């Protein structure tokens, strides 16, 4: 594929590879096998819904990365990766979901051809797309190799975003604003939840002007009432009801980059407890954004929020956010740092997080969140612009 | 959750468990740990977009299954599983995507509490949601257990659908017809692909009458022209062009059940080679459906198709289909049998497959597929009703 068609410039891809190789060297890894689709895309540009079969990127210490996957998806590799076609390899279709063959047997052949059968090979042990079986077959095929757990090695390199990436996230943010406003507009007593979701999806995929919408890595999460006390239930065909809060956890997506955003809608007159929680939450978010400064730590963001909440007699436990950017299903989080009391990652300009200090109560949930960008000086910037409050439709 | 709210009747769930236990017994498994979200839902009803963190179902040889996952998702378990709340367990949030703790440490505690630390434990070695790391931690935690590869053990029990399941698939099929017709209607020279996809998604989620649309396990696959030679590329914002074929691989979804369907649209005047291929493909599908009879084998379907193709001087290699029904991302296939020359699974009434004899050529792709139901007598039934042809919009 001509580099002009790639999502990013060649110097950008080269810089990513240089960063990754430095991390490999530090970890004592000669050859890295990357299965996380986000990491594959970040290094090579590969983009397709083909991660349900085994595929990955081999990154040696020199030369171009090598994309490897199912034969028919190697065609997709040629249409989306920036490397020369020599570095895109497909395996035969009878390896696919076979009970007698495993694609890792084919991959092992490529590793032997690279002369790396005795190398220190980094694998992403904790990844959706590197199964227990894949590891068992690969290690059996390469008895002289030493396997090193390289979980999140590439993800950590992605933590500070480049200017090109931030531009994509800002585009995604325009779509996020649109989908959240659509959700608020369409919510009404008696409207079926799936019809609201259909409008949200339509708004997200049409996008904003020339910012066309890609698919977010998570479907709209839109639970109401008691279902909203469970964070990850999806919709059904039941009508929205008077007296219920519904939270909308949504993200726009532009060329696989996300900017998640949540707002909560209350139909009818909210109880005083919800209004009190709203006040505490909004004040807490302001304090947290002020603490989200370069040089501070991720835990400082969490602690700033919980301090305000405590002042209001409320308590929030659990994780309050994660880095975001490039992602594929099933998660739009980057799975490296976390915004939580025990995480001490130092904040740097260019980091982007979904800060989500959701309050899940016994009988309702209140989600007001922001995608934030750590800046050179001063507090974090919220990249989306939607009023920060509980939306009441009475 | 009251059983009336469950997707299926209690006798249906009990029958599924009985079938699974018989398979466990045959495989010498005392305790099964199920991570495939589709298998979890099939056994317990659990339904939520929470599979991006570790969760699963423990099925002992007696008593109810046990759903286990993140604390906040245990709330979702209580709202979607049919078992008593005693059998729904959550782990603490500091296990989530932690660099120092792993949820499998918590799961091992539950297995010890069941007295099964020395049991023969079945695990789904080849599953997106059972990572190499999860297996490493679990086996380390339970050194006296014997681990047995139970990949697809539950999936095979799902191959023959119950009447209740077939009713769901028929509902999904109504939505599939609607989304395919929407795609054909909206396709036109100059229309941005993402705008077509937005209409498809809107049509799919609004559904048909009271058949509300759930999210399909794969996003719309809609490549045009040269991109259509690569099977799994997703859309972008480029306008559709004169002289290009676009295939639409779509599925309606009703309460997680699918009925995938593909049709191809040609804008302008198609080349004779495409028309010839269309003729061969349609004739081949008819022959294949006729061969898809109870008592025949999956390979008979594939061979019937390729024989017709050969008569027309065309060749088709690779897998031509897979069982479908209940599914979660990233795949709507069931990952047990395959429709291909080397697969000898005996067809039984109630089996449902996505039969997809797609022709991917050097410069274009032609996908015309059907979701088929194996009947008591006679050829397979195509559960969707959309004309089987290349749709030409000139």
UniProtKB/TrEMBL annotation, chains A, B:
Family annotation (InterPro entries): Creatin/AminoP/Spt16_N, Creatinase/aminopeptidase-like, Creatinase_N, Pept_M24, Peptidase_M24B
Gene3D superfamilies for the chain: Creatinase/methionine aminopeptidase superfamily, Creatinase/prolidase N-terminal domain
A Pfam family assignment: Creatinase_N
Domain Creatinase N-terminal, first and last residues per copy: 16-160
Domain Peptidase M24: 168-376
Listed name of the protein: M24 family metallopeptidase
Organism this protein belongs to: Marivivens donghaensis
